[in-house]
Write a structure and sequence with these properties.
The protein is 17% helix and 18% strand. It is of the alpha+beta class and 152 residues long. It has a 5-stranded mixed β-sheet. Strand 3 and strand 4 (64-70) form a beta hairpin.
Length: 152
Amino acid sequence: MLNLGPNQKILLAVEPVDFRKGIDGLAAVCRQRLQSEPWSGVLFVFCNRRRTTLKLLQYDGQGYWLAQKRLSKGKFKWWPAESQTVAASLAARQLGILLWNGDPRQSRLAPLWRPLEPEPKIEPRPPRGGSPGANSPPRPPASAGDSDKERD
């Protein structure tokens, strides 16, 4: 499932993309045009030339997700204008508006009360040195009932 939390980084490829491309072709677009690694956890959004279809690509740590939305009628009303910029950033709540064929720039959303900080990275603990079983978890002390079972 695609993760769309408030901290999700979302990049829109400003230039239209050939939608015959699948996961590998879109991942190459991420690297070559957007200068971003496709396995970075960023959600990439692409549009076709006619602006009738969007594709979303994201790597979740095990593999890629590829989602597609094609409008039954009409075109997407908003897409960033082609300019010097190859990618535009979007907030998760703005992506929801875009997917419903709205204009994220025109939406009147309440401001975030307090931006969320990314989760801190937890560093692995270094192994304990010394005895052969030092890397295994400590064993709980034996209770009185356990010694009776060993005798039987």
